[in-house]
Amino acid sequence: MTARRTHEDEVAAVTFEHDDESVVVIVGSGAGGGTLANELAQKGVNVVLIEAGPRFQMTEFVNDEYGAYDLFTWKDKRIATGTSPVAEKFREAPTWIVKAVGGTSVHWAGQAVRFQPHEFRARSTYGDIPGASLIDWPLSYEEMAPYYDRAEYKLGVSGTHGTPEMPHSNLYRVFAHSARRAGYKQVSQCPVAVLTVPRDGRNACDQIGFCMQGCKSGAKWSSLYAEIPAGEATGRLEVRAECMALQIRHDDRGRVTGVLYVDKAGRRHLQKARVVCVAGNSIETPRLLLNSASAKYPDGLANSSGHVGRNYLRNMFAFAYGIFDRPVTMHRGYVAPGLVRDEAGHDPKRGFAGGIYFTAVGLGLPYHAAFLDPGAWGREFASAIEGYANTCGVVVLGEDLPVPSSSVTLHPSEKDGYGLPIPVLNLDVHANEFPMRNYGLKKAAELLEAGGAKRVIECPPMPSTHNLGTCRMSAEPADGVCNRWGQTHDIPNLFISDGSQFSSNNAGNPTLTIATLAVRQAAYLADQLRTNSL
Ligand SMILES: Cc1cc2nc3c(=O)[nH]c(=O)nc-3n(C[C@H](O)[C@H](O)[C@H](O)COP(=O)(O)OP(=O)(O)OC[C@H]3O[C@@H](n4cnc5c(N)ncnc54)[C@H](O)[C@@H]3O)c2cc1C
Ligand code: SF4
Fold first, then answer.
1. 0.85 cut: is pTM over it?
2. Total domain count for the chain?
3. Closest ligand 2 atom, residue 194 Cα
């Protein structure tokens, strides 16, 4: 039995007045903001969710990589500077982020890996690495564990909490066989936020593929159809789509009082608030705080430490294709099965700090062609494309270290369509990343060749899909922007509720941790509101 849900079933249950000072206003409806909104609504808190992008129906998703990219992507101009190859190659589009209800959780692949315990203690574990602005998180894995359990269940992570593992696609089989032949032992299906049995109005995965183009069955978790309709059904959540937050306002005491935003028709509104939570992803979150500068806060909100916008993280990300002499058909089935954990720990003998994972990825032909760079055009390139059906993709994902100069700032003169200064993303790579990348790509090639690949092609960099760390948590107010609950050190009723909170990164994908932090923050925030502590 399946339980297909479309947005036609959903009702905009409630509307709040603009001068209602009792509501929590959340900016951004993605993995962080959408989850927080539902969790708060379930706890009886009234929420206004302001989202810059439109609200899509599942029926509008297209199994076309470029078509979906066009539909979803945040294309407002950003400028990249700095020494990173990503900045050099993608001067005006260094990030890959969605502008829509559901945020980038509409587009993501769904890989849902927990942080390892030592990754919450990066500074203590890796020591003082010159050039890195590492700190420990002000919370531990043990504190996060029960919230990880809850988030995994909510997201429907296959292979956990009674949800069966994903079936083995051919891509998985080729990848797992190759990894084992290369000597790796910790080879498994990747835990993914994709249901293998129907639950909570979402279908089981039908293994057709094109998962990143929007999952039409709802098997892959997205706040668009998993969190937000559930929150609306409580009668306590109002979603305002196509509304761009321009500025957060505060009173004379310095407490935030509301959010100025512009709606689809170009009308400006001030939504009053008891609490404001910012979840615009790691470029727009610091940008909004910086754009909210005032006479009282001339450097932007919550920025007494000067850390707003700094310590940007994106993961070390490298991609290799192996071409076999028989079909792999990587485009068939769920897009990113397979995980090798053997190299995920911290082992300085390899010549770098932090760990790496290998995952299998099966892209469609358009992305395959776009991300391929066999070193030359002509026959070299054409033969790689001809090998598509026999190709297996492997992503090497590693922990990147924070660098203070990797940062989001406001452009001094250029403005966007809303009249706001556009963000400038300066991307510098810590030296730790180069040996990590070389090692990871060498091992990826060995893995593919062990399985029988006849040719391995390393791919050039691509825009950042993981964007983190620009308003980080810290034990000491001088080292970051918010505390262990995401509450800003400077302004108690202003919260950071997305991946910007990350104190440091992990070797794996971030979004399970973003959702987990949202679940945890909702529990804290609801309690603070109930006891009138805010
Ligand atoms: C192709 C792709 C594949 C990915 N695969 C994985 C994966 O397998 N595993 C994984 O863990 N992660 C993956 N990610 C990353 C993952 O999607 C993000 O980490 C996650 O969605 C970030 O959550 P967030 O809440 O920080 O921001 P988002 O989900 O991006 O949400 C931010 C929202 O805020 C809105 N917004 C921003 N500014 C404003 C404003 N001023 N006013 C109103 N609204 C605003 C935006 O429109 C957006 O909807 C992938 C990303 C991409 C692009
Ligand atoms: S393969 Fe599964 S997760 Fe991917 S789009 Fe289809 S149903 Fe969704």
1. yes
2. 1
3. 3
